[in-house]
Amino acid sequence: MPRVTIADIAKEAGVSKPTVSRALNGHPDVGAETRERIQRIAADLGYAPSASARSLRTGRHDTLGLLMPLQQWWGYSDIQYGIAEESARRGLHLMVHPLRPGERAEREFVTQTLPTLPVDGLILLMPEGTPRHIGAIAHTSMPSVVIDDRGHRLDLPYVESTNRAGFREAVLHLVRHGRRRIAFVGGQLNDAFAQERFEGYLDALREGGIPYDPDLTLLPADREPTADEITELLGTDPDGLAVAWDEIAFSALNALHAAGHRVPDDVAVIGFDDSPIARVMQPPLTTVRQPFRQMGAAAVRMLLDSIEHGRPPAHFTVPTELVIRDSCGSHEDQ
Amino acid sequence: MPRVTIADIAKEAGVSKPTVSRALNGHPDVGAETRERIQRIAADLGYAPSASARSLRTGRHDTLGLLMPLQQWWGYSDIQYGIAEESARRGLHLMVHPLRPGERAEREFVTQTLPTLPVDGLILLMPEGTPRHIGAIAHTSMPSVVIDDRGHRLDLPYVESTNRAGFREAVLHLVRHGRRRIAFVGGQLNDAFAQERFEGYLDALREGGIPYDPDLTLLPADREPTADEITELLGTDPDGLAVAWDEIAFSALNALHAAGHRVPDDVAVIGFDDSPIARVMQPPLTTVRQPFRQMGAAAVRMLLDSIEHGRPPAHFTVPTELVIRDSCGSHEDQ
DNA sequence: TTGTACGCGTTATCAC
DNA sequence: GTGATAACGCGTACAA
User: Which residues form the HTH lacI-type domain (chains A, B) (predicted)?
Assistant: First the structure.
């Protein structure tokens, strides 16, 4: 059976197609009685508008695109959750496009895929190390927003969180509870996230009147310290570990246990992100929660602004939140 | 600047629009030289086909829809990953639709959203307890595939994994390593997953010649045992815990530690799913890996079959895989 | 091998 | 307030 169109409704109602269109889209200049009749008939006939036809005519798709790394990380899912929720709230569809790593895939996406994408705007989610070619999107007419544009400098509006201030607050929390030999464990400092969190660490030391000791800094390659590196760090006798990623903190916790250190009695530990694992660790990990869902929602709002008003590049910052659990040793004395 | 269309190319190439269309879509009946010239001009002009116009004309969208619960779980993300990857491989777009819980939202989706969705087929991802109204999709002309249609009986093709056989294999592994008092910890048996895994547990006992002891069965409500329930179970002096979900196994591990039991020496533990957390637990959890990505990919293939050949309802089973780590106590003696 | 004519379903423009 | 007409960009009969 063929699709029901506004032409069918028009015939049935004895009016013209444009009138049906106006009635169904809530235009004011249509008779109240006519509108009701048309709406009733539309419902009776089981009319459903054709998205393609509407898009062809209006140039809008009522759809947002999300460009994601083809890479598993709970944080990305969390961001997508925020985006999906906010999009749905605004009656927009969400199209998800995995981006394979490599410059070639990026180039192909920008030149081949992007121009034909039935999408009104694009949200970019890119891990550190994504080559810059994707930045060509900025020279496109496609409205776009980047999430966590750390070190990319894409010349596009972006959403970020308070990496530096958030980590500073967490380290300061250790300082206030008497820790003096707090080590920093993070990634290489050419990683923009590691860099910002390291500066937050320095901020906290400065504020606490604690001199910076380079021996207490561990910057493993690939964000992944080896067992040896951790052992060596523990040899410097720290009483606190400020770890720039939860995942690294988990390794550290296990290494501490293995070496016979007690957490938090001997060594306090804090992480960053609030991974789902942080809660079930022993002891549960104190960490800085990234507001991923809110960041996703904010990206949607910015994108809509950009689509409707053609706003110039800007950015939006969502605050992180210190989540105090047991690993920092301050649960009992508060 | 206005969009470049095939009309522009036609004018530039001195041919008619249909010729351009045929050349660009690889129809055989077009002169080799003409084709080349048209392709070159298309590239020069930066031509990009209009997805809406094509869809309007052909009735196809080259897009798959994914209906997901508005609910955070790593497994759903994993499935989406598999779907996204396979869709991309086939040149299909992926549209993600969150489904809020409740019969009303389901009804609305089926009657309002679905009919206008610019999608060629739909993959359904529904947690236990999703009311049956969504099953109305079966009476629709929309090709659909369900993932893990446990207990829904939706009369639609579905993809599943070997819950019963997989759990049986894992429990049998414990039996073979000398465990005799193996407890089952799962959800209520009206939960179809709990039911199947429980039967796998019984299968293994039977095969191992171990009589079933009801005291060794813990069926907490909501898949979430209380501390008291676990304590009581440990009072029955089990030497193994067969847990139907990793998440519950994590609670159990922590409870065991708190009660002073050693894992795996005193009590061996196995879980189900292979959550990302399983690897970082102490000790790392032996578990049954769900092939989520492959299930997603399989769903895409089934859906494509259904779209192209209108296949009748069928189903496809992907095997689980036993992942042996330390918590089952058989690493050292193998 | 190529061109002519037309339709897909909707909305914008303008006239009445 | 409503109708006639056209246009969005593309693909497909059919004829040449």
Answer: 4-58
